[in-house]
Amino acid sequence: GGSEPARWVEQVVEEVVTTPDPSAGHGTNTERQVKVMVNGRELSAEEIAALPQLGPTRLDPARAGPTHRLLPHGDEPLHEVRFEVKREDGDQPTLVLHGMSGKPTAIPLPASRIDGAIDGFRRQLGWGLGMLLLLGTAVAALLARRIAAPLARLSQAAERVGHGELGVQTDPAGPPEVRRSIHAFNSMSAELSVMQAERDRLRADRELAELGEIGRGLAHSLRNPLHALGLSLDILAEGSEPARAAKLAEAGREQLQRIDQTLRGFLALSASAGARVEEVDIAGLLDDVILEARQRAQGRVRIEREACALRLPAVAAELRIVLHALVINAVEASPDDGLVRIECAPCEPEGVVLRVVDEGEGIADAVRDRLFQPHVSSKPAGAGMGLYLAERLVRLRYRGGIALSARGGRGTLAEVRVLPRETQHDA
Known about the structure:
- By secondary structure, the protein is an alpha+beta fold.
- The protein is built from 7 helices and 13 strands.
């Protein structure tokens, strides 16, 4: 009771066609033609060209005609026919039949429709790829613009912040990642603005505190010499002996010099950062300070300096205050017939090192850690402002420092390092 499975039928037809030949009178033309029948339908040349390689083909005996070469049903085929389509690059395709006459039979196939279909497919593929590329470029441009515009505004805002304009804000736009970055920048800029305001407030408070400290130091520095000067004048008014009067007059002049030097120090410290900077001859400046120190010492102490040919961009009045404080301290700390030696040497970058060495008793332990604070002095008549002013000038205006250390045997070494003077533009 099962149904018979469907059979496929292929038919290969080889026929000889004879036609009259008009050019030869009563002659004829003989052509050999091959037809391929599949399920009763004749294939065109293009369809033949598209056929895959076939296995054994058979012809139904019921459909055989007088011009057909038959491949009858049976367990073994009488003939095995294989189709092959060959096409070299740029050449016309050819149908090759194997096994019909013992040798391959080549049949040229028209290629116009095949080539047209291939060319059409290529054109469509090219247009498709071009349109896809154009669309991708447009989408990429839109995305880039959407991302680049907010990033450009963010970059401009960052430059403004870098130039000191704190608190700058920019509108969040673009993809989520860019918006988050802009929000973070806005928060940072706002926090920097708050921190700057707080720093300005603290700076103002510190400046007010320093101003008060300097004012107290000035009052203290002037009070002692003025008091001594007043006592000297009172004694002179009582009619003292000439020798004593001369001694009191000299003491009065010394106190006036102390007052003058103190006022110079405070004026130099309060001078604007835009003071005139010039090439200062270190040797000439040292000679002026040494001359004043010798006058004050009155031959009690010897002062020597090494040869020095250095120059430094500086404000001469400021360096004079620094050197005066160090040299006068060394002279006052030295014993009778003691030696104060001054050395100078270059240092990197483009700076100068000055050393003042004395033969005094050294630095007292009680004031060693507070030497650069105001009102700290180991001398009974000292105001404790000389080193304080000198250290601030060196640190704030010359990016340097002052160091005091005890020598191995006796005395103190004061070393000051100064670089070219900072101007308002440098700061």
